[in-house]
Structure formats: C-alpha cells, structure tokens
Amino acid sequence: MFRSIRNAALMGMLLGVCAQAGVVTAHGALKVQGNHIVDAHDNPIQLAGMSLYWSTFGGSTANWGANQFFNASVVSTMANDWKASLIRAPAGVISGSGQDVYNYPATMNLVKTVVDAAVANDIYVIVDWHLENSTPDLSDATQFFTEMSHTYKNTPNVIWEIWNEPKNVAWADIKSYANTMIPIIRDSSSNLIVVGTPNWSHNPDLASADPITTDGNVAYTLHFYADQNDPTGNVDADNNTAMAAANTAIQKVPLFITEWGTVNNSGSGNVNTSWSDKWLAWAQSNGVSWANWSLCNVNEAASALIPSAGSNGGWSAGQLSASGTYVKAKIQAVGAAISTTGIEKIPSPAGFSARATGQGLSLELPAGVRELHVTDLQGRTLLRRAVSGQSRMQVALSGQGMVLVRLTTGSGEAVLPVLLSH
Q: pTM of this prediction?
C-alpha cells in the first residue's frame, strides 16, 4: 500500500486513525455480493461524501481554480467535520464541450494527494477517470490506471471509476472498453471497479440488461441531477424516468452514485430539496452509496462553497452554499449510521507493542495471549500462530504496507497497525 518513502509523520497519522477505528479499518475493502456492494465482512454498507471538482490543466478551464482543493486539509475537513466516509478525486480528461483538460503527471499527482489523504483519514476514495466524451481515451487511461493501481495495489480505501460519463455511446462500446481496462487494474488491484453507463451515466438499466461477466467485483454508475429538466421542461417527468431506470437496474446489478447534484446538470438552477430528498431516500433504502457534485467554490449553484470560501478546509456555516448546507447535513446523517467501532471495543492491553524490523516484526506480548494473527487491511491472513507464555517474539514477514497485528487473549482481541517498509 505504501512505498518505503512514506515518512514518520504519515505513519503517526495512520496510527492515530487506526486507533480510532475509522470506516476503512472497520469495514475493509468493498466488494460485490449479488446486486449489492458489501464490506469485507459481507455486511451491507452505505457511504456518503463529496466529489471534488475535476482537475483542469488546459484551455479556458484552467482558471476554474478546482485544483487547489486537491489537498490534505480539505480531505481532513470532510472526514472529521462533515463525517464523510467517502471522497471522489476526478482526474479531468476531456470535458463535455470537447476540451482536453488532462496533463500527465500533474493530474496524477493531484489525485495521489487526495488518495494519500483519504488513507491517512481512514475513509474511502473514488479514483475517477473524469471523461465526458463519446470515445474513451484508451492510451492515457491505460497509463493512468496502470500506475495508480500499482501504487495503491494493497489499499482497501480505493474504488476505481473507469469512465465518468460516456457521452452518446452505446452500452456495447462501454462494455468493450471496460473489458479492456479491468484486466489492467486487476494486474495489481482486486478492489471494486465502477463502470460508467450510457447517456452520461443516466441509464444503468441498459448495462443491467447485459452486464459484465468477466469480473465479479464490478458495479455500475448512476448519476442524477435533482432539478434537471427533460426537453419539455418537466422536472418531475425527468426524475421519474431516471428513477424508473435505476429501479430496473438495481434489481439485477449493484449501483454506485458516484456523482449527483441538487440542481441541474449544468451546475446552475434551483436547489431542488424535494427531489434530492426522494433520491437520497431511494439510495438509503437500496443501500446505494453516493458522492455529491461538487466540493469547490466555482461560481455555480452546484458548488458546496460560496466563491469567497478558501480551499484549506475548516469552513464556517456562512461559507457554505445552499447546496453545501443541505448536503453536509445529509452526509453527516449517513456517517452517523456507519459503525466504526470494530477494533476499539477492546483496548490494547498493557505490554502489547509491535514494530517492523528488516525481517518482519518484533513483538512485546502481554500475559494471557493465545494466538497471534497478522492480516493486511483487506482481511487476508499473512501469518497465524498459537502463542503460549511468550513475552517477546520475532516473526518473519515479507512485503511492505500496513498490516494489522491481532492478539487473541482471554478477554477478546487487541489490534495494532504496523507499517512494513522492506
């Protein structure tokens, strides 16, 4: 999960997060089970958070100012103040108007900053190939996902979104692209992959009629905008049509709302709380996770912040837009329902310590230990050993990244995180 260049300060942050048993430590990597997304322990889970505005490195979009929000302070505010369990990092590629906004490696570095901050705050993060176009940028996408999946190959926080909004593309073509990209990611990462659907990801029903069968850990994208008009200007008709498509799809395949707005899909218009409430109630009843568009101060109604709000987090109520005020409360409500008490029920007993060595782990063990069990953050067993009367132990363990050292005692289980770097 972590390269050896990760420093002691980051390690300190991770230890603090793990001690508090955040959402990823408690629930592990997400996976598909039937037509639902569940946690690593097969328990249903609904996540909620914000999507950042897309990164931009080209044309007139370069002055949007969105890039400055790709920072650790923003992610920390989301996790600790807004109680978000999820943040989305959109790697801007091509806009709906055909503008190329992608730059490698600048885009990559912005996204990595957000992923690292999400890991440090123990929340999930969507790595989003934010492409609004009728043809996939296969060459750049291959380069991007090859590097990202290798860098974060053992990171349960990460969710891969391989095409934000296919524009005027048949599902058969999207499926073909997905079947090309999925093996590239699978070379390094087994994490959940979310596949875009036709008509700017408004039609998951078309995907559900012919789902991907080459991989079992795939979900499908649903996007909606609560005040979006259909050609006749009927908001109710448009939302009813979109919800009917969602209801058809959710009967067959798992859905993930990687983007939704309280206004219309241009980012303008009224904040439609009535239809937002209906959609979020639908998401809750179906256990569908979501990210709201967008965490930025761009001068549009969809932005969660007013234009004068800064990009360093810690925003006051007066710095939130009408949309931001509404969405923050909804995120906090979902966050309050997520259990993060999985490893903090039993405090670590006195005398328990674990540190990495060049060959594995050096352990100080309290009395009464029965078993040592070391896992990665995705719950896979790396070492399991019975213990009887030992106060010190050296164990060989290869690899690198974060591991959880678990002791079974007469009173329960104690857990410590350790970062391997050899």
A: 0.79
